[in-house]
Design brief:
Layout (H helix, E strand, L loop, with lengths): L1 E6 L2 E7 L5 E6 L4 H19 L7 H9 L2 H9 L11 H11 L5 H18 L10 H13 L5 H20 L27 H10 L3 H11 L7 H5 L5 E2 L4 E5 L11 E5 L2 H16 L24 H10 L8 H14 L4 H8 L3 H8 L4 H8 L8 H5 L20 E3 H5 L21 E3 L12 H9 L5 H15 L1
Antiparallel strand pairs: 1-2, 2-3, 4-5, 5-6, 7-8
Helix pairs in contact: 4-5, 5-7, 8-9, 9-11, 13-14
């Protein structure tokens, strides 16, 4: 039996437990009807406790699940129910992180960082329900002024804080989330974007101390693989030599159905270093009839290990200045390159995120884009230089057997020029074929329409790296000697 009695400005629920001991629950700020409702549920809970029957009627069970933390604490103090998860800030967040065995080590590290921030600002014993929206706003300001965090970092940390308090709402510890309404969506950090050119990449490869680091760098720079999670998850079983493909295990996206893995091409830049690593691993086998298995990268085994410090040293050894977000910018560089040659839906499938994320966080505008866009802009006085024509004195006669400079251009670009502006030797209008590619005079047979091989070189030139362009130019110069 539970009695509801008037107690000054509030109410008192009195009952006797299974040992005949009188217990009381004092309530304030509620009306008589609510007090009597609570009294009925207390009677049911006490009967279940006394008879050691854990089952409750559906109405009381639903009420208990939804009851606020203050009432629940009073019920627990009276011995009617078990104490809920701790409602103070430090204990609750620590318990939440411990229960999140489904997330990656890197995410756990981020959780702990925000936990330390919250505890440093509010105190370990701060009751969750005492934290208000104003407190949350002051916490954000503290992160900015005292910790010196950037806008994106502020948003990430407040977003994780909101995640903690959302869990507290689900646990019935609080009714409202003080971080609701606070901006937590992270925008693209264009100020931290860095495109790593092919020439810089080759310098870094040469500066790598061993094969293991050449693997790590190549997989990031040319495979667009996440580091360290996807790098360390890669095994030799994932390398499909026959089909020239690589299966990438994606710990970051495995919680999304169908995104546990993805398949990328074995790009030419990867094939050589992977083959070298495989041969080295094979040489270590005692049984030469066995197949190489296990992780591709063996130097590191945990995603919590700090690879950035070593990588920054390698970058400096290469004569370069370390850049922000080093591994993400390697992925961004590769994605930017691939977007120049492949449809966007193909590239994002290889990189492992959506087109929205690619546009927001990864794709960059490079110097090569500007060079390609301006490569056909020919001012009349600049056209000879852009075409690579060597100036000669006017009135100079050219022997028919003498070799002349070969240049390629769009004749349509010259068709619009006044005749008097085309005065330099080697720059002659090609009659009757405006809008078609044409060659100027060449040694030997008269130049005509471009052949398919040369056309391939012309079309592919903007996509070639500096080293390949240099080899082609040296071959041409040797041929002209």
């Amino acid at each position: 039996m539970a009695s509801v009695l008037k107690d000054g400005g509030g109410w008192r629920i009195r009952f006797y437990d299974g040992n005949g001991k009188r217990k009381q629950i004092r309530l304030a700020g509620i009306n008589k009807a609510t007090a009597e409702q609570i009294g009925r549920h207390v009677k049911v809970l006490n009967a279940a406790k006394t008879s050691n029957d854990r089952s409750l009627d559906r109405q009381t069970a639903l009420w208990l699940a939804d009851v606020g933390q203050t009432i629940h604490d009073k019920l627990a103090a009276a011995g009617l129910v078990e104490q809920r998860v701790s409602s103070n800030l430090g204990d609750f967040i620590a318990g939440y992180i411990e229960r999140r065995s489904d997330v990656e080590p890197g995410t756990v590290t981020n959780y702990h960082q925000v936990r330390l921030n919250l505890v440093a600002f509010f105190g370990y014993e701060k009751p969750l329900r005492d934290i208000t929206e104003r407190d949350a706003a002051e916490f954000r300001t503290w992160l900015e002024t005292e910790e010196g965090q950037s806008e994106n970092t502020l948003r990430r940390r407040c977003g994780r804080a909101r995640q903690f308090f959302t869990a507290a709402i689900k646990a019935k510890l609080i009714e409202e989330n003080p971080f609701d309404g606070m901006p937590v969506s992270v925008g693209g950090s264009k100020d931290k974007a860095r495109f790593i050119t092919e020439a810089e990449s080759q310098k870094i490869l040469k500066a790598c101390p061993d094969l293991q680091w050449r693997l790590i760098f190549s997989l990031c720079r040319y495979g667009g693989v996440r580091c360290p999670s996807e790098i360390l998850a890669l095994t030799w079983e994932n390398i499909l030599w026959d089909s020239q493909r690589i299966i990438v295990t994606a710990p970051k996206t495995k919680r999304y159905a169908g995104h546990e893995t993805r398949v990328i091409p074995m790009f030419p830049e990867l094939a050589g270093v992977l083959n070298e690593a495989y041969e080295m691993a094979f040489d270590r086998l005692e049984d030469k009839s066995a197949v190489v298995s296990g992780p591709v990268v063996t130097r590191y085994s945990s995603a919590s290990q700090n690879l950035r410090t070593t990588f920054d040293k390698i970058i400096k050894r290469a004569g370069l200045v370390p850049w922000p977000k080093p591994f993400q910018n390697l992925r961004a560089t590769r994605e930017t390159e691939l977007m120049e040659s492949y449809p966007s839906h193909v590239v994002v499938a290889w990189i492992g995120h959506s087109e929205t994320v690619a546009r927001k966080h990864y794709l960059q505008v490079t110097d090569a884009n500007f060079e390609r866009a301006t490569s056909k802009v020919l001012a009349p006085q600049a056209a000879p230089q852009l075409c690579g024509v060597i100036e000669t004195e006017e009135n100079t006669e050219i022997d028919e057997n003498e070799k002349t400079v070969v240049f390629t251009a769009f004749s349509a670009e010259f068709a619009s020029l006044p005749e008097e502006q085309i005065t330099r030797p080697g720059l002659e209008r090609t009659p009757g074929n405006a809008g078609q590619r044409a060659l100027s005079e060449m040694p030997g047979p008269t130049g005509g329409p471009i052949g398919p091989d040369l056309q391939t070189v012309i079309d592919g030139w903007p996509f070639l790296n500096e080293a390949t362009r240099g080899e082609i130019l040296r071959d041409v110069q040797r041929a002209l000697k």
